[in-house]
Design a protein that fits this description.
Length: about 280
């Protein structure tokens, strides 16, 4: 949690202080730049790394786009960005007087990501918390997003600086949590859900990724990582909409080939899409 300041050291920066003092004001939310309007900001979070949050972000963006919405993705995973590769887009990006132009995929999805700003996509990013959070803010309010129905924010794993910055300074309408059917994952995902609730950000959906594997020969479903927990977690945390995704090697292959848009979901994420 943010540090608690004493009245003597108070800098009137409520976003960086957990004190519940009488002068506390809600942290101001950022607004997009003068050429941009964004109708809905949705965070995709997990708490635990490697559960498929980026894949789910890309799938949700693609599905929304296929339904005719204008969509952008803000890759808030500043040190481990993978959204551009999944869509097969590269930098460099160009700037204008109002801000930086996002990369646009062939399907017209706008993307901003650290990887689009680096000379080489495997260049390491070794920035500390304040720099990372500054970049996330700039990715929101110094990018020429234009008119977007949805901006999806792919969060880094965990609940540290980046998570707090997104939840407290971006006008997030709700989050979708991504989980996997392992007890440990469920517990850690719960931390992100609880923190979002503490910050008054509604959790609108839960996607359990790698929920099962369907044998391509006999069609039988196998619970590789354990039995599904999606309904149990949703009930426990009062999350209204759930969806499950199988383990499917073709998903990873499509991501690696930059063709995430072409993955056929066959309605797998419909309940969550309709919730946002
Ligand atoms: N359901 C799935 N079936 C097959 N492969 C998957 C599935 N979900 C994710 N993957 C693959 O697993 C890897 C990790 O997924 P992804 O990058 O989406 O996870 P993440 O939660 O965003 O990770 P990080 O914590 O690093 O941000 C990727 O190679 C991805 O393509």
């Amino acid at each position: 949690m943010p540090e608690q300041q004493s009245p003597a050291t108070c800098g009137h920066n409520c976003g960086g202080c957990s004190s519940d003092c009488s002068e506390r004001t809600a942290p101001a939310k950022l607004t997009p730049n003068s050429v941009s309007t964004i109708n809905h900001v949705i965070g995709v979070v997990s708490g635990k790394g490697g559960v498929g949050k980026t894949l789910v972000t890309c799938m949700l963006a693609s599905e929304l786009r296929k339904r005719g919405y204008s969509v952008g993705i803000l890759d808030a995973d500043v040190t481990g960005p993978s959204i551009p590769k999944a869509f097969g887009v590269k930098g460099p990006l160009r700037g204008t007087e109002t801000g930086i132009n996002p990369a646009i995929t062939t399907q017209d999805i706008s993307i901003i990501s650290t990887n689009l700003l680096l000379p080489r996509e495997d260049d390491a990013v070794a920035w500390r918390g304040p720099v990372l959070t500054g970049i996330i803010r700039q990715f929101f309010n110094e990018v020429n997003w234009g008119k977007l129905d949805y901006l999806l924010v792919d969060m880094p794993p965990g609940t540290s600086d980046a998570f707090l910055t997104v939840m407290q300074t971006l006008p997030v309408d709700g989050i979708i949590s991504v989980s996997a059917p392992q007890g440990l994952v469920g517990m850690i995902v719960g931390k992100a859900i609880n923190l979002a609730k503490d910050l008054d950000v509604p959790v609108v959906g839960l996607v359990e990724n790698m929920s099962y594997f369907e044998c391509p020969d006999c069609g039988k479903r196998h619970s590789i990582f354990g039995e599904t927990q999606v309904e149990e977690i949703a009930k426990h945390y009062d999350i209204p909409h759930t969806a499950t995704l199988p383990i499917n090697p073709s998903f990873a292959a499509m991501v690696d080939a930059g063709k995430v848009y072409d993955i056929e979901l066959n309605g797998a994420l419909d309940t969550v899409i309709e919730a946002i």
